[in-house]
Amino acid sequence: MRRLIRLSLATGAVTALGGGLLAVAETGSAAVPGSALTAPESALAQAATSGPTPAPTPTPAAAKPDFNGDGRADIAVGNPNATVSGQTRAGQITAFYGGADGLSFSRRQVITQNTPGMADEAEEDDRFGYAHAVGDFNADGYSDLAVSAPHEGGFVGRVFVLWGSPGGLTGGTAISRPSTTVSSWGYTMTAGDFDGDGRSDLVATGHSNVVFTYDNLSPSPGSRSVSSRLLPISTALGGVEGLTAGDANGDGRDDLIARGMSAANEVRDTHFWVPGTAAGLAVPPHTRTLPAGESVAIGDINGDSYGDIVVGLPWDDSDNPGVPGHYPPGTVPGGKVTVRYGSASGPSYYGRTITQGTDNIPSSASPNGDRFGYSLSLGDINGDGKADLAIGTPGKDINGVEGTGAVTVLYGTAAGPNTSFKIQQYAQSSPGVPGDDEPGDGFGDSLGLTDVNGDGKADLTIRAPQKGQNSLTTLRSNGQSITTVGATVFNPHALGVTQQLPGTNS
């Protein structure tokens, strides 16, 4: 099975990974961040875009990505491969606004660098929408969206912040790279309150092992401050490859999870925990090495008020484990998911590993290539105060159809993810799910658990990157579990913006 192209949907404390196509992520110090989506206009309205209905004034510090403050989570969908005004791979990002009926094409905003209010213009290969992060950067109660164009200016890169308002996202404040030593600025980003001041900070980097934290962001450039941290990550493969935020030690400040090749042993996809402090992110030696993997999520699965860290290692034994610059040791056929529980001192060494060979987990006759754990999302589906876990297996064969993909849902308990009962698995051929299994669809390539209809329970949004050029399927919570009743599917390509399929000449 071929390696899939990473284009992610993130939720809760999970932020967009590089190349993110669908992102729904706002982090904060909440113990159960899954009520929020991670991985983008009143003044930014484009042709064929109706935009959201203006919402009333929101309550401060909304705990979910709510660009218009109506109390329902919104989703940002980035497509860095989109063709804009004839410019190939210029990129775009679209905000889908939640409503009582969930997500709808009638409430959407398409944003490109040509959109009025943006401090730039669309150019070939800019890759606008490659990475994005959601947070309330100016502390006005509306979620804001940071989005990058890492190939802008010939791999110089640029980051833009779109500001939330009653009418949705507006503006387009530009943040240029902080150092000429950083290329592809904005390659990966996340947002969180790392110093505990009640205001979201933006952490971003490019091809570098240095991350930059922006505090006090606002439409006025003079108000911002920036600090940097050197991480124990090698630059041989470009530096930091992924960033995620969440509170693992329960101190009310978000911590940073950074992914990259370890500078100590050159093992790829190593994760490092960097705690937040009153002065912002800590510096080495106050970091901690975590299990290696391709995906990560943070949320309180066992209800003890500490964020638990879930890492997905989707590669197989055949993926050359342990070779420097390649995949890490510990791979198993079909992939695995590791949970490290949070504590007052941060992520503990105690945890558990889940594979398709774990009792009661739907298995495969030939698991190699399934990519179990390729995507992860945490959210509270049943409102019990514990985060539930969705696991993507986009390479899984279903009913003899190769690589069509599936998603497994495990519910949180005081003992962690429940693998004894109430386990759910969905594919496009599941009763009630719109569509059908097709070869190579990659259903489950990206996931988002967030409350898109405002009922207080997390709903599940699933991306299939090769299904009609990036289809999105939403399965709602019925208050107790995920259900296919009222399931919807829609296709960002229907927005009428020509795009290049992910993985082709990208």
UniProtKB/TrEMBL annotation:
GO cellular component, one term: integrin complex
InterPro entries to which the protein is assigned, alphabetical: FG-GAP (IPR013517), Int_alpha_beta-p (IPR013519), Integrin_alpha (IPR000413), Integrin_alpha_N (IPR028994)
GO biological process annotation, one example: cell adhesion
Domain of life: Bacteria
Keywords in alphabetical order: Glycoprotein, Hydrolase, Repeat, Signal
Region Disordered, residue ranges: 43-66
Single Gene Ontology MF annotation: hydrolase activity
Signal peptide as annotated in the record: 1-25
Protein name in UniProt: VCBS repeat-containing protein
Species name: Streptomyces marianii
